[in-house]
Amino acid sequence: MKTEQLKRFLKASTLALCMTAALPAFAANDQIVAVVDNSVILKSDLAQSVVELKQQLEMQKRPVPPQHILEQQALEQLIVRQAQLEQVKRYNIKADEKSLNEAVLKVAQQNGANSLETFQQKLDKSAPGSYAFLRNRIAEDLAMNRLRQQVVMSRIQISDQDVDNFLKTPQGQAALGNQVHILHVRVSGAENAAQVAQQVKAELAQNNDIQAISKKYTGNGVTVQSADMGLRNLTDIPAELAARITPLDVGQTSELIEVRDGIHVVKLLERKSTEQRALVPQYQTRHILIQPSEVVSPENAKHMIDSIHNRLKAGEDFATLAATFSNDAGSARDGGSLGWVNPGVMVPEFENQMKNTAKGEISAPFQTQFGWHVLQVTDTRQQDMTREYQERMARQILGERQFDTELDSWLRETRNNAFVEIKDPSLDRKKNS
């Protein structure tokens, strides 16, 4: 799961670095401005961070505060960053080389370089050591993002009831692609508007001629306005109305909805789903696995699976041979049955063999990382997984909503739990707030 905050995280930091003309000079007498757990923040680190923060604010067209405030804000960002890096080191989290190269290349392309080599030459020509500095910074960002994902995701709890409740909301219905066709009437004016609204509601329940209803009940200080809102997404309808429309059955009229501009009533004429059904091919599959071991050499394992395959071809019972010989204890107890298997669940070699074995046929022996197999597809079907897809989508949306809140909470905890000593009192935001 990635949030907009995380997507901006790498972009902002690396772009600011690339815009910096040169790296700070690390003098021998560089001062320590803060201690964070087992690490220190140097004055040169702070100077670089101030430059980056100022550039980011200017890029976002946000006001740049006075220098001493800018320094306090930059130092606080460095402290929070270093507190996270301390946890990265503690849990030995590292960015893999492939992801790191891809991230650096993306920054290179944003800055007009089409290869890492060209980008390195461009940076180091302007300031020696810039490329290594940037690459290390991006590696830290990737490692921190991995840490954040692991920690924050473990804090997010979404129940089945949360999912059901969300799917019933206008936002959930809109996310599913549902549209509604409604008639909308608003009653406003004199003190007896509530009484007129009740009469309008009763007539609307029996009659869809909203123009006639408006004409009939407008007068004596009461105005009745109506509209056929056509077929539209729930997100295009005011929230007060959308919340009342979601639970309605087709042909049903809502209760009176009292808001500041009058009393509203709506009638649902049609509910239409624009979603595509999620039909997934499934394979009812059973297999026999022979694994090499200390007592079974790879050659013997291959010989055993060939022998079993020949016996199956000769008509021996698959379930009996699976129960007798298969090293997959879970399926062996059930005659080798794996039940209904969805695509993407098995390793690629197994899935490829499963998809290309005709129903009722015995596959040729094939090898995966687990050993040697033979399989049989006893049946196939197209399973409607729409509900499962909807629930996964709902969990993703709810998780995204919770992620930023949990992330902010975890960052505050990380900052508060870290040992921090600020050497220069003028840089301490708490003492100067």
UniProtKB/TrEMBL annotation:
Its main location: periplasm. Residues 1-27 form the signal peptide. It comes from the Bacteria. It catalyses: [protein]-peptidylproline (omega=180) = [protein]-peptidylproline (omega=0). Keywords: Chaperone, Isomerase, Periplasm, Repeat, Rotamase, Signal. It is an enzyme of class 5 (isomerase). Pfam families: Rotamase (PF00639), Rotamase_3 (PF13616), SurA_N (PF09312). Its EC number is 5.2.1.8. It is found in: Periplasm. One of its GO terms (molecular function) is peptidyl-prolyl cis-trans isomerase activity. GO terms for biological process: Gram-negative-bacterium-type cell outer membrane assembly; protein folding; protein stabilization. GO terms for cellular component: outer membrane-bounded periplasmic space. Gene3D superfamilies: 3.10.50.40, Porin chaperone SurA, peptide-binding domain. PROSITE patterns: PPIC_PPIASE_1, PPIC_PPIASE_2. Residues 177-270, 280-379 form the PpiC domain. HAMAP family: Chaperone_SurA. Chaperone involved in the correct folding and assembly of outer membrane proteins. Recognizes specific patterns of aromatic residues and the orientation of their side chains, which are found more frequently in integral outer membrane proteins. May act in both early periplasmic and late outer membrane-associated steps of protein maturation. The PPIase activity resides only in the second parvulin domain. The N-terminal region and the C-terminal tail are necessary and sufficient for the chaperone activity of SurA. The PPIase activity is dispensable for SurA to function as a chaperone. The N-terminal region and the C-terminal tail are also required for porin recognition. This is Chaperone SurA. It comes from Acinetobacter towneri.
